[in-house]
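Mods, move this if it's the wrong board.
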Amino acid sequence: MIALEVIEDRDRLRNFEPEWIEFTRRRVPDNPFQRCEWLMTWWSHFGSGAPRVMVFRHGQEMAGILPCFLHEWNGRRQMTLQGSGVSDYLDPLFDSEHAGEIVRQIRTELARRADWDLCDWQDLSRGTPLACLGEVIDETPCSAITIDQPFDAYFAGRPKDLKRNLRGDRRKAEATGYVTFEAAATADPELLDALIELHGARWARLGQAGMIESNGSEPFLRDVAERFAASGGLRFFALRFAGRIVAVVLAFCGRTTIFGYLSAFDPRYEEFGFGRELLLQALRYGNEHGYRRWDFLRGEEPYKFSWGAERVEKCRVLIRPACL
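Not the wrong board. Structure tokens:
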């Protein structure tokens, strides 16, 4: 039998965190957005309303978690997934052998409550077990590259114009300055500062606010980078040109996948194509360190597919009391 605890108190949620972390050590998440470190950091910066975290146990061991919160949104009492807005995958973490029973428990729990009008659960995988609970709507897909061969063999199969642009840009840059690549597993303040500064400069040049500014997410990024660095799950990739950081990617590591979360490039050096060069070196790093997949996360920008990316379909599930 699966037992359910619903955490509705902020203090209880904080005290529950060690058990949640231990669960994710045993049931390793598929992506960083399922980890307690990500979701509790998100909650501390963006959480509103009251927690509605459903914890499922089989005997004394956790078997799953559905971390939600209840808040007022657009005039309705809405249950939203923790992590919404700045996360690209929000599938809840369930032990596969108990998933069916867990979903039945969720249905029962929602049906017995009268304190909500809508569950709006976004950024779920297309095959989510939660789909049976409500209306399924397509979401913006993600995209990812699989590299299951030596890197040189993978790169030989890339389009000729991509390889030609990389060669030309590299020659042009090296004619005026020295280009170096680095990878770091620490929350290096210099790299964090460069990411935030260059991201803002790039979007300001387009007359827009970037994700960091529009979401007010700089404090969150700094905190979550520290937490992931402590557990070995953080990577910064950067290019320096004549000693100056000109391109940087903030990434998180899964078991076999690197998730490229946020990138930034110095718009003053756009002619040198440093974004392409940095991605090339980051993909090579991942392959040589045992990772077999690079996930670009949200969006279908054409350049991703020149590197061999494939779509990762996602959906949103809308649940109303009448559905149950």
